Amino acid sequence: MPQSNPAVAAHSKSIKIVVVGAGSVGVTTAYALLLSGLAAEIVLIDIDKNRALGEVIDMSHAAHFAQARVRVGEYEDCAGATAVVVTAGVNQKPGQTRLDLIKTNYKVFKSIIPQIAANAPDTILLIATNPVDVLTHAAHRLSGFPVERVIGSGTAMDTTRFRHELGKHFGVNPRNVHAVIIGEHGDSQLPVWSLASIAGMRLKDYASQKGIEYSQDAMDECAKRTRDAAYEIIKKKGKTNYGVASVLVNILKPIITNGDALVTVSRVGTYGGVEDVALSMPCKLNRNGAHQDVPLLLNETEREALRRSAESIREVLDQLEQD
Ligand SMILES: NC(=O)c1ccc[n+]([C@@H]2O[C@H](COP(=O)([O-])OP(=O)(O)OC[C@H]3O[C@@H](n4cnc5c(N)ncnc54)[C@H](O)[C@@H]3O)[C@@H](O)[C@H]2O)c1
């Protein structure tokens, strides 16, 4: 239903958001955004114009209830957009290597990103296409935008899943679990156990106060289910769309409302001593983009895992840059 918060309503009047890629992730994001009431205008761009048009006609009937305009656009329509969400690209095909997928989506980005940047030099790019860290780095290079204005959805999705898993385990609302997944949106991601808390208490202390057993094995299972969630969903339904769409809207909200919210997103920087890579750390999000507010106080094991995660992304970037 439309957002009833007057502060949000005041912001939304002039807000245009463009979604590039009208596939599963793109249209579910556009639909979630439509129902959020955060934007006055949503523009869908896709190489398959017919597909985008069909989605827009269908969604415009929902827009009737949501007081926002949805339409098909061209890259010129990015002008004046508060943010452009990029979901265009392909998913991994059977027999295709991860590097093949990267090369294909990098080609897609080479055709898309310069067009967005030329038409909307002041916008914020929000990247969802996978591999999201590598493509956030590519979007930064291809746009020439400052690092703050090129944001990858990164481990915002994994952090949401992680809090969901821990909330289920401890029997509390996931919103009351403070825990993050940082690093790569992929296999080298890491849970920051040393800083995880519920009601201001470390997980171990919370469990002991509650009179339940704390086991690191059970915690590791929560982290494993988080890391493998996408594989599990894709095995069953062939794609993921609802979780990521909600996460993308949750990233757009503080950008639109200048909310200074802390969200774990991907951004180009130096991590664990590895320079010029994009990966996720908690960032402060507002109308100027993603800002690395304060460094996380990681323990030595976590610092080492973060370095390994950064190195694995750097290796892929090196392979890509050789071509
Ligand atoms: N970051 C995350 O957490 C997350 C979660 C789920 C999916 N994804 C990724 O999002 C991407 C999209 O997934 P999907 O399920 O929506 O795929 P999809 O195949 O349903 O949609 C992709 C769309 O991109 C369009 N497209 C392809 N090339 C284009 C171009 N050059 N210009 C404009 N449009 C173009 C296609 O026509 C299609 O409509 C994939 O890379 C997927 O891996 C990311």
What does the model show?
- The protein has 323 residues and is an alpha/beta fold.
- It has 2 domains: 9-152, Rossmann fold, CATH 3.40.50; 156-322, Alpha-Beta Complex (L-2-Hydroxyisocaproate Dehydrogenase, Chain A, domain 2), CATH 3.90.110.
- Helices cover 48% and strands 19% of the residues.
- It has a 6-stranded parallel beta sheet with strand order 3-2-1-4-5-6, sandwiched between helices. A 3-stranded antiparallel beta sheet has the order 7-10-11. It has a 3-stranded antiparallel beta sheet with strand order 12-13-14.
- Strand 13 (274-286) and strand 14 (289-291) form a beta hairpin.
- The radius of gyration is 19 Å and the shape is globular.
- 46% of the residues are buried.
- The structure holds nicotinamide-adenine-dinucleotide.
- Residues 20-26, 46-48, 51, 87-89, 91, 108, 111-112, 128-130, 132, 153, 157, 185, 239-240, 244 line the site of nicotinamide-adenine-dinucleotide.
- Belongs to the LDH/MDH superfamily. LDH family.
- Pathway: Fermentation; pyruvate fermentation to lactate; (S)-lactate from pyruvate: step 1/1.
- Its EC number is 1.1.1.27.
- The active site is at 185 (proton acceptor).
- Residues 15-152 form the Lactate/malate dehydrogenase N-terminal domain.
